[in-house]
Specification:
Layout: H1 2-11, E1 15-19, H2 22-25, H3 34-49, E2 53-59, H4 65-69, H5 77-88, H6 90-93, E3 99-104, H7 106-114, H8 126-150, E4 155-159, E5 165-167, H9 173-192, H10 216-220, E6 233-237, E7 245-249
Parallel strand pairs: 1-2, 2-3, 3-4, 5-6
Antiparallel strand pairs: 6-7
């Protein structure tokens, strides 16, 4: 690790975004693993010694298996376990870290993980995906509050991944319909935090917000840092059910 940080310094980097592994810090989502936190403390100190600002991400799709076994992000209790985990980290590192990211690309975790089945946990349940999207946003809001409780002056935000979508075949009605649905599936649920606005049938079920969803927008918070990675546009292709298939192009 020290060699990697030295190379960053030689390259002239002034900030380094890295992801902290939830299962490494709180295995099973329960007791704190001090050894796991020790590693990140050494990394932060090494970065600062080389004049590189650490910018940790607290959730990058690695949910403790025990929490997934209880329903994962489709289970509201995961929100509170995330808040417990988040509190463990700035308690140790908050005096040296000025900027935090709560979640990396929650759309991927919710819709690729729980609806499309191409990311962990590999589920294909649209209802679970919408619930996961809601709970991830709520977790961001709670995590942000926890961070600021330990580090009041720190920036705390979320990383989103919006993308333009075009129909794979503009003459194909199914592709056009998939393209029109894609912004809802990919961005509106996450960016606007308004689950109730889901159109009936967009994800193959009648979508209603999970219990307590009305408070999500307030808990997520309008004023926060939002890093936005941007690397692909996508084409939408209609398929037999109303989830659309995306093809990424760089």
């Amino acid at each position: 690790m020290s060699d990697d940080v030295r190379l960053m310094s030689e390259l002239g980097l002034r900030a380094y975004r890295f992801s902290i592994a939830w299962p490494r810090v709180r295995p099973a989502g329960c007791a704190v693993n001090g050894t796991g936190l020790d590693f990140y403390e050494r990394l932060v100190d090494e970065l600062l010694e080389h004049g590189i600002a650490p910018w940790p991400t607290l959730y990058h799709w690695d949910l403790p298996q025990e929490l997934e076994d209880r329903g994962g992000w489709a289970n509201r209790d995961t929100v509170y376990r995330f808040a417990d985990y988040v509190g463990s980290v700035p308690r140790r590192l908050g005096d040296r870290v000025s900027n935090w990211t709560t979640l990396n690309e929650p759309w991927c975790a919710a819709f690729l993980g729980y609806a499309a089945g191409v990311h962990a946990p590999g589920r294909t349940d649209p209802r679970a995906a919408v619930a996961a999207g809601h709970h991830l946003l709520l977790a961001h809001g709670q995590g942000r509050e926890v961070i600021r409780g330990h580090a009041p002056g720190a920036g705390a935000g979320i990383t989103l991944n919006p993308f333009p979508v075009h129909p794979n075949d503009p003459e194909d009605a199914a592709d056009v319909e998939a393209e029109q649905s894609a912004p809802f599936i990919g961005q509106q649920v996450v960016a606007a935090a308004q689950v109730r606005q889901a159109r009936a049938g967009t994800v193959g079920v009648r979508v209603e917000g999970p219990p307590g969803h009305e408070a999500t927008a307030n808990r997520v918070g309008a004023r926060c840092v939002r890093p936005v990675p941007y690397g692909a546009q996508r084409s939408a292709e209609g398929i037999s059910h109303s989830l659309c298939r995306h093809r990424s192009t760089t």
